[in-house]
Amino acid sequence: MSRTRNRPLARYALSPVHALTFGTACGVAGVTSLFVFVNPLTAGLGLANIVLYAGVYTRMKRLTIANTWVGAVVGAIPPLMGWAAATGTLSPGAWVLGAIMFAWQFPHFNSLAYTLRADYSKAGYRMMSVTRPRLNARVALRYSLLMFP
Prior knowledge:
Layout: H1 16-37, H2 40-60, H3 67-87, H4 92-115, H5 117-123, H6 128-131, H7 133-146
């Protein structure tokens, strides 16, 4: 994809083994740091986000448009982590922040994906903007409307 062609892995400046090793080391160090210096709940959310992004979302992009909803969950977890880090709990306010971020992902990502649909198609990604452009627009509009109080 033209958007990502200059990244180190895409231009072969880094081998897949080195990228996996570095990513794993960073993930382990990050989750361990959260566990030791913040709290186990925040560390668990961080680990869940790594698994969802690297293990589920990334693989789903070539299989189904449902990847967008999984990606939205990935985007909604950081506010939950911040709340958990500050309070040690996931009280209703955390879920409200997470829900706002979840809903925001669709108008944000779907509009970007629409402009990049040719690249996504060429790369073999099953994005709504490629396979179902009208649904892409409806979903973006639906979640945009949810953002109004």
